[in-house]
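Saturday, quiet lab. Running sequence design on the structure tokens for the scaffold JK sent over.
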């Protein structure tokens, strides 16, 4: 699968590496939630999959 990132890809590029180095706690969800709030429908899909993959990764 490939994604075409909108203008907010710069936000994702900076947020995701930091969040995945952190333990799976409120900090991770806080980062993803703050990114999601600034996003459009496409980014909300990306947020959803990042959340699902994050649970799978940390479980």
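Result came back. Writing it out in full:
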């Amino acid at each position: 699968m490939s994604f075409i990132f909108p203008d907010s890809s710069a936000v994702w590029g900076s947020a995701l590496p930091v969040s995945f180095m952190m333990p799976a706690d409120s900090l991770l969800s806080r980062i993803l939630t703050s990114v999601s709030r600034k996003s459009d429908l496409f980014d909300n899909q990306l947020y959803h999959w990042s959340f699902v993959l994050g649970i799978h990764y940390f479980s």
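Notes for JK: The chain has a mean pLDDT of 61. The CA atoms of residues 16 and 34 lie 12 Å apart. Ask whether to fix the surface positions before the next round.
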